[in-house]
């Protein structure tokens, strides 16, 4: 896969030219769906170790701070008189990026000996004693020594390892980007213009050097957890349904949500725990191994950390 996990794996192997690396991506170009991503201190240290710091810092609004800075402000906002109940401070704060910015930076650092194959959707794989045979939707076939499956929550590689599958959590999220300049003109002084905020279950922070405000607004029907998902995982939404879902919340929330021009709605899925992420010649990476709900803001960071840790451990 050509997402953050697969690219991080390729970059982490840049000092291993004796290994033939082939990276397969199902899309016709490497791109990323979704918008914002928060990078916490440990993940940031790893990105630094991969030589990505200078290029990533250039995409931050105020650069990277090394002191204790505001990570997130937490508010109760599901009422008219909302209030802040906690402020989280961490080393460097919580640098926030557009996913595409991280992906593009990783792509620039992929070693020359890594061969990237686009328009290759894996449909099945067969593991034998000494190899793995890959079959792609375009008819191509490839035999490899080891398969690292970073192919997401619907992983094909995971089918070769005992697992209980994935399930719908009963939670959905409205997502959208708001141009900061336009929003500032409408609502000068709005707290989300500068600081990352978590209000009840809405996550808001600036990305792309502060040009956009990333908004993710969660809502849950507990009775639907574990039920089959009988609709698209990602769909277009309307501003009216977003505002209806959060009716009665404090004014700043309504102002924020009403400023999303083209909201989308994402069904949140999760994966039952697995006893192992590896077989003899297949290893799972990222959402393929341990998909997690986005509430801790650590999914992409976890895949970066786990992959580099695996590679360094194996090297030692």
Could you describe the 3D structure shown?
The protein has 316 residues and is α+β, with helices and mostly antiparallel strands. It has 2 domains: 172 residues, 3-Layer(bba) Sandwich (FAD/NAD(P)-binding domain); 103 residues, D-Amino Acid Oxidase, Chain A, domain 2, CATH 3.30.9. 24% of the residues lie in helices and 30% in strands. It contains 9 helices and 17 strands. An 8-stranded mixed beta sheet has the order 4-3-12-13-14-11-16-15. A 3-stranded antiparallel beta sheet has the order 7-8-9, with no helix packed on it. A hairpin with a 4-residue loop joins strand 13 and strand 14. Helix 1 packs parallel to helix 4 and helix 1 packs parallel to helix 9. The longest helix is centred in the last third of the chain and has 17 residues.
Give the SSE string. Answer: HEEHHEEEHEEEEEEHEEEEHHEEHH
The third-level CATH topology of the largest domain is FAD/NAD(P)-binding domain
Q: Look at the structure and give the mean pLDDT.
A: 88
Give the domain tally: 2
Whole-angstrom Rg: 21 Å
Strand order of the largest sheet: 4-3-12-13-14-11-16-15
Determine the fraction of residues in helical runs and give it as a percent range: 10-25%
Q: What structural category arises from helix and sheet content? A: alpha+beta
The biggest beta sheet is recorded as: 8 strands, mixed
Number of helices: 9
Total number of beta strands: 17
The CATH H-level homologous superfamily of the largest domain:
FAD/NAD(P)-binding domain
Query: How far apart lie the N and C ends?
Result: 26 Å
Strand content: 25-35%
CATH level-1 class of the largest domain: Alpha Beta
């Amino acid at each position: 896969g050509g997402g953050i996990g697969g690219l991080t794996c390729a970059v982490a192997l840049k000092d291993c030219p004796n290994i033939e690396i082939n990276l397969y991506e199902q899309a016709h170009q490497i791109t990323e769906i979704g918008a914002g991503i928060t990078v916490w201190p440990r993940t940031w240290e790893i990105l630094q170790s991969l030589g990505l710091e200078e290029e990533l810092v250039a995409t931050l609004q105020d650069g990277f701070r090394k002191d204790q800075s505001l990570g997130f402000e937490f508010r109760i906002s599901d009422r008219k008189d909302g209030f802040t109940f906690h402020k989280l401070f961490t080393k460097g704060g919580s640098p926030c990026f557009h996913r595409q910015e991280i992906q593009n930076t990783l792509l620039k650092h992929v070693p020359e000996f890594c061969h990237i194959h686009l328009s290759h959707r894996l449909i099945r794989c067969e593991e034998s004693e000494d190899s793995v045979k890959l079959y792609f939707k375009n008819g191509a076939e490839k035999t490899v020594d080891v398969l690292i499956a970073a192919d997401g929550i619907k992983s094909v590689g995971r089918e070769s390892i005992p697992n209980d599958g994935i399930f719908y959590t009963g939670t959905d999220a409205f997502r959208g980007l708001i141009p900061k300049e336009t929003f500032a003109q409408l609502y000068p002084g709005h707290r989300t213009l500068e600081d990352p905020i978590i209000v009840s279950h809405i996550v808001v922070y600036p990305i792309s050097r502060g040009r956009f405000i990333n908004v993710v607004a969660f809502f849950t029907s507990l009775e639907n957890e574990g039920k089959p998902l009988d609709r698209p995982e990602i769909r277009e939404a309307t501003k009216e349904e977003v505002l209806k879902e959060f009716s009665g919340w404090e004014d700043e929330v309504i102002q924020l949500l009403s400023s999303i021009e083209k909201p989308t709605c994402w069904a949140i899925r999760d994966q039952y725990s697995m006893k192992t992420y590896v077989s003899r010649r297949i290893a799972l990476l990222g959402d393929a191994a341990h998909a997690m709900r986005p509430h801790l803001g650590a999914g992409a960071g976890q895949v970066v950390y786990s992959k580099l840790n695996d590679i360094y451990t194996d090297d030692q």
